[in-house]
Task: inverse folding
């Protein structure tokens, strides 16, 4: 009887110690920091894998080209952050449990009235590591002035916005107008027409 009592006490102590070690590991895992690519000195990025939030320590002012701003839906399935010409989208943890899901990038607008329309993309998650994004299938962007690149990151969906040369802007504008049945005119006129169309919030894709 005494022996079995001692064994129970020893087992209880071992279980308690294992639980304590597991709790410490859990807290360490929650607070683990990751360095995203393209991070400038002093701009440490912290990602909490369990509750997918992301925060930046800014030593420089935040901007995206031509004062673009993110127009987001509060019911979105991801949190959005910007630094320079890069947008980080962090999907909610619940989404990462699905084998496949879609996510909409919100419309991006500038104070001058230009906008890049909404884009819906398909993600596949890696079942071996649910917090890692799988491949991304992107949709075309019909905006003559900016090129959007979709990159895969360990914990975030990265959208990079870059300006394109003037000649490429005109080529994109001409292709866009011809595709949509708008009669051709001068290149500059075409570009202005396209800007005014997108300025009214037309979606790309």
Result:
């Amino acid at each position: 009887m005494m022996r079995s009592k001692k064994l129970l006490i020893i087992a209880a102590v071992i279980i308690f110690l294992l639980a304590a070690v597991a709790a410490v590991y859990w807290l360490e895992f929650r607070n683990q920091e990751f360095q995203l690519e393209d991070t400038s000195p002093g701009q440490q990025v912290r990602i909490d894998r369990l509750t997918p939030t992301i925060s930046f320590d800014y030593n420089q002012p935040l901007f995206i080209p031509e004062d673009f701003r993110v127009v987001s839906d509060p019911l979105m399935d991801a949190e959005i952050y910007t630094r320079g010409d890069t947008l980080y989208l962090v999907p909610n943890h619940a989404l990462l449990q699905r084998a496949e899901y879609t996510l909409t990038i919100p419309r991006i607008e500038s104070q001058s009235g230009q906008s890049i329309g909404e884009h819906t993309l398909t993600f596949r998650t890696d079942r071996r590591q649910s917090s890692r994004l799988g491949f991304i299938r992107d949709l075309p962007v019909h905006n003559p002035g900016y090129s959007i690149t979709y990159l895969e990151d360990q914990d975030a969906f990265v959208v990079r916005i870059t300006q394109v040369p003037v000649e490429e802007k005109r080529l994109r504008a001409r292709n866009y107008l011809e595709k949509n049945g708008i009669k051709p005119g001068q290149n500059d006129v075409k570009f202005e027409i396209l800007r005014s169309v997108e300025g009214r919030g037309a979606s790309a894709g």
